[in-house]
Design goal:
Length: 96
């Protein structure tokens, strides 16, 4: 069964944030890290996976992404701090 992920990338601890949604988290984060996605993330070096959630339904994932994009920055930072206090790059553990 396919799953979808809502994720946040950061340039560094408390740095620039990016919220996205994808059906293939591993591939998508790799694309960001390799600079294959022109635009915001490559311009600002936003490549560290610091938070993600999994959803079985794409509609739920898209709604969550849109909701997070409307959140205040402080709320996003708190969400990261609650789930990943050291701001580790979760892509490293995601890919083994």
């Amino acid at each position: 069964m396919r799953s979808y992920h809502v994720y946040m990338l950061a340039s560094q601890r408390n740095g620039t944030l990016y919220v996205g949604v994808t059906g293939d988290l591993s591939r998508r984060v790799w694309e960001h890290q390799e600079g294959l996605t022109p635009g915001f993330t490559s311009k600002y070096g936003v490549v560290r996976l610091v938070w993600y959630e999994e959803y079985p339904d794409v509609g739920d994932a898209i709604r969550r992404e849109k909701s997070l994009k409307r959140w205040r920055r402080a709320w996003k930072l708190r969400l990261i701090e609650e789930n990943n206090p050291p701001w580790l790059d979760l892509y490293e553990t995601w890919n083994g």
